[in-house]
Amino acid sequence: MLNLAPITQDSKIFQAEKLLYNTRMLSEFDLIKHYFARHSHSAAGADPRIGLGIGDDCALLNPSPGMQLAISSDMLVSGRHFFPDADPAMLGHKCLAVNLSDLAAMGAKPLAFTLALSLPEANPDWLAPFSAGLLALADHYQCALIGGDTTKGPLNICITVFGEIPPGLALRRDAAKVGDDIWVSGTLGDARLALAGYWKEHPGLIRMDDDEHRQAALRMHRPSPRVELGLALRGIAHAALDISDGLAGDLGHILERSGVGAVLQLDALPAGPVLAKQAREIRRLYTLAGGDDYEICFTAPAAKRAEVVAAGAASSTAVTRIGSIEQAGGLQLLDADGKPVSIDIQSFDHFTSA
Amino acid sequence: MLNLAPITQDSKIFQAEKLLYNTRMLSEFDLIKHYFARHSHSAAGADPRIGLGIGDDCALLNPSPGMQLAISSDMLVSGRHFFPDADPAMLGHKCLAVNLSDLAAMGAKPLAFTLALSLPEANPDWLAPFSAGLLALADHYQCALIGGDTTKGPLNICITVFGEIPPGLALRRDAAKVGDDIWVSGTLGDARLALAGYWKEHPGLIRMDDDEHRQAALRMHRPSPRVELGLALRGIAHAALDISDGLAGDLGHILERSGVGAVLQLDALPAGPVLAKQAREIRRLYTLAGGDDYEICFTAPAAKRAEVVAAGAASSTAVTRIGSIEQAGGLQLLDADGKPVSIDIQSFDHFTSA
C-alpha cells in the first residue's frame, strides 16, 4: 500500500542502500505523504464505502450490497505514453482520466483507486501539480485514493480503479447485435492531430497555427472521461468500449468479440474542432485511426435512438450515429454518397511520414 | 485491462511509432496473451465471484455478500526490488507473494489480482517462466488473474491484489493493546543474510558456504506469504502487519498507529536456519532489522496464548512469542538476562560496511 515513509518500504531488497539513503530521502518522501495521504483520509472519512484508506497493509472497501465491482488498470510509462517533460498537472489528470474512461465504457460508477508511482526523485515542483491534477479529477468523481505504493525508479504511473455497477448492466465488448446502430461520443482526432503537430507530420497537408495546436493538444494532454454518458447508457446500449487507439482498431474489438461486422459512414465521423478544418484525407485518417480520443464507441438497438439522444443530453455529451452492426463482412467504410471507401491506414501514414 | 494485442493499447500517444512497431511486435505480444489469458479465462469460468476476466475495458467481480474487500498494490522495479538478472520463475512468484503477504497481514482471503507489466521486450524465454512462477502461486491460493495492462518500457511489475474479509475482523496496525503479547511467524533474517552474501558485507563476521548461501537466498527470492496463518488469526490477534523492511521498523508502525510502546526479547527472535549459525551481532542485527522477510508480526491478548499456538499449528506455521506491548517508551530491547540492549542499526551497518 502507499507506504508513506516509503524509503523503508520501497527498498525491500536493497536494505543497505536504504540505510545510506535514509536520512537524505526521508524528508523528500514525506512530501508524498503530504500530497496524497490527506486526500485519502478525508475521502475515507466521508464515504462509508471506504472502510480504511492509506496507511495499513491493505485498504478496505465495503462494496454496496448487490453491486458488481468493475476494475481496470493502466500503466503509463514516461517517453511512451507521455512526453518526459509533460505538464505534471495535466499528467496527473490524464493518468486517472484514462482509467475512469475504462469505467465509463463499462457503465460503472467510480468508487476508488490505488496509485503506484515509480519516481526518479521526489521533486516537490513535480509532485505538487501532479497530485493537484490527479486529486482534482478524483474529487470531481468522488473517487477516493485508497492506497498504492511509491518507489524510486524510472517514471512509471500505474493506477487501478474501482467502480460499481448493478449485475447484468455492464456494457461489454461482446454484446453488439446485428441491426444495432453504432454511436460515438464527443469528437475524434484532435489528440492525434496535436501529435502530428509536435512531430511535424504531413507538412503538405496539415495547416494549423499555434493557437489551434494548443487547442488540439488539450485533447491529448487532458482528456475527459465520459463517465456520465456511460452511466446514462445503462440499459440502453448493448456493447461499448473507450477509444484509446483509434476508432477502427477499437471498434474491431467489439466486432471480434461479438462475432459481427459493421458499416461505418466515414464522413459522418465527428471530427474535433481543429481537425474539422483540415483536408479530407487527414480528417478521415485521424477520426478513423487517431489515438488518445477517450471517447465511447457503443452500439444500441435502432429502436432506442431517442433514448440514446436523451442519454447524451442528460449527460451533456454529444452523441453521433456513425454506422450499423451487420451480420458479417468485417469493417466496411462508406462515403457520404454511400460508396465503399478503402483506406489503408498503415500505408497512408507510412507513405506521407516518409 | 490486460489488452492482449497490447501494441495497439500500449502506445496511446505514439501512434506513429505503433504503426512502425506493429508488424514486428504483434506476434511477440501475442505471447503475452498465450502466457496470461488462458489462466484468466479458466479461473473466471471456475469461480462465480469472477464475473468477467481479461479482455474488456474492466474486469467484473461479484463480492461475496457482506464481505469487505481488502486491496493492496506493490510495484517492483528492476535493479531496486530485484536484481536485473533475477530468475524469472522466482520473480513471478515473488511479485505475487509480496502482495499476498499484505492480504495475509490483514487476515484476508485471496480472491483475484491485476498485473500491470512494463517490459523492455517480449522475450518468451523470460515470459514463460515468469508467468509459470506467477500463476503457480495464483493457482495455489485460487487467486485469479482478472486483468491488467502491458506496455513496452523499463522492467516494472505492478500487482494489485484483492481479498475478502468479514467486516470488523481485519487485523489492523492500529489495534495493539497494552498487555498484548507480540508474536512473529516463521524465521527472520535469512533473506538479509543472503543479500550480505551477494554483497560480501561483514567479511570478518559472516561465515557461510555456497550451499548455505543458496539456502538463505531462497528466502530472498521466493518468499512464502503467510496467508493461512493470517486467516487462522482472525478474531484472535489484535494488530498485525507483514515484515518487509525489518522487524524493528515495521513493528514501529504498529506502535505509532496504536499509540503504544513495546519490549522485545532480542535473543528470542527466531533466526533463519542459516543465520542461526552466525555470530550473535549478525543474528541480532538481521533478525531485528533485516528485510524481505514477509513474516507476520502480530499482537494478541496474553489470555489467548493457547489460541495463537493452535492457529500456528492449524496453519502449519511456526509462531514465536517475542515481547509485549507496553503503555509507552518506544521500542525497548532486552537480552536473555532481561537487561536492556541498545543497538544502533544504522551505525553498526555503516561502520562494518565501510
Protein architecture, described:
The structure is a homodimer of 354-residue chains. By secondary structure, the first copy, chain A, is α+β, with helices and mostly antiparallel strands. Chain A has 2 domains: 6-165, 2-Layer Sandwich (60s Ribosomal Protein L30, Chain: A); 181-353, PurM-like C-terminal domain (Phosphoribosyl-aminoimidazole Synthetase, Chain A, domain 2), CATH 3.90.650.10. Chain A contains 11 helices and 13 strands. Chain A has a 7-stranded mixed β-sheet with strand order 8-10-7-11-9-12-13. In chain A, strand 1 and strand 2 form a beta hairpin. In chain A, helix 2 (15-46) runs parallel beside helix 4 (124-140), helix 3 (88-106) packs parallel to helix 4 and helix 5 (190-199) crosses helix 6. The relative contact order of chain A is 0.14. Chains A and B meet through helix 2, strand 2, strand 3, helix 3 and strand 4 of A and helix 2, strand 2, strand 3, helix 3 and strand 4 of B. Strand 3 of chain A pairs antiparallel with strand 2 (59-61) of chain B, so a sheet runs across the interface.
Give the terminus-to-terminus CA distance of chain A.
47 Å
Q: Please identify, by name, the CATH architecture of the largest domain in chain A.
A: Alpha-Beta Complex
Biggest beta-sheet profile of chain A: 7 strands, mixed
Structural class call of chain A reads: alpha+beta
Radius of gyration of chain A, taken over Cα atoms and rounded to an integer in Å: 22 Å
Low-confidence stretches of chain A: 1-27, 347-354
% residues in beta strands of chain A: 15-25%
Which protein chains are joined by the largest interface, and how many residues does each one contribute?
A-B, 95 and 95 residues
Number of strands of chain A: 13
Cα shape of chain A? globular
Average per-residue pLDDT of chain A, rounded, comes to: 87
The total tally of domains of chain A equals 2
Number of helices of chain A: 11
Oligomeric status: homodimer
CATH superfamily annotation of the largest domain in chain A: PurM-like C-terminal domain
